[in-house]
Specification:
The protein has about 160 residues and is mostly beta strands. It has a domain of about 110 residues: Lipocalin. Helices cover about 10% and strands about 55% of the residues. The protein contains one helix and eleven strands. The protein has an eight-stranded antiparallel barrel. Strands 1-2-3 form a three-stranded antiparallel sheet, with no helix packed on it. A hairpin with a 4-residue loop joins strand 10 and strand 11. About 15% of the residues are buried.
Length: about 160
Amino acid sequence: MKFNYSVLVLAASCYLAVSCTKTNNVTTTIHDTTTIIHKDTVFIQNPKNPIVGLWVGSYQFDANPGLGSFYYSFDLFSDSSIIQQGGGPSGVIYMGKGTWSLSKDSILTASISNTDATQSNWTQKLTAKYSSVNGTLSNGVWQYTSGGTQTGTFSLKRTQ
């Protein structure tokens, strides 16, 4: 019985080619995204604290800091719409809706108008610094652009 060495060499070559294939899967967190590198292909997964979602915190009046802080929230949607809700002195609740944008230097800007027909019409401009790493909107400033003259500050944290 003759043994064919060429078949043995071919089988050994196939085994070595398969067994020596090396896969390097590396997971690295970069700011607000998890990046997975798999065979030179980069996959970016969901951000840690994406801008779209519910943000909750508090706001204050510049002219009357003695009033304290009040409940404040934004719900930011992927279509650039925003719903805002806030509490006020004497338990007043008010809501607004409008549009928002995020600049390349992570500054959120929004314009909202009230949605409650029992209150006078008003519009506000909002700005804040977005941190996807910390899940915060900080250094927030709000000001009436019509229907009022008040200004104030706010800070929010991403909740979901």
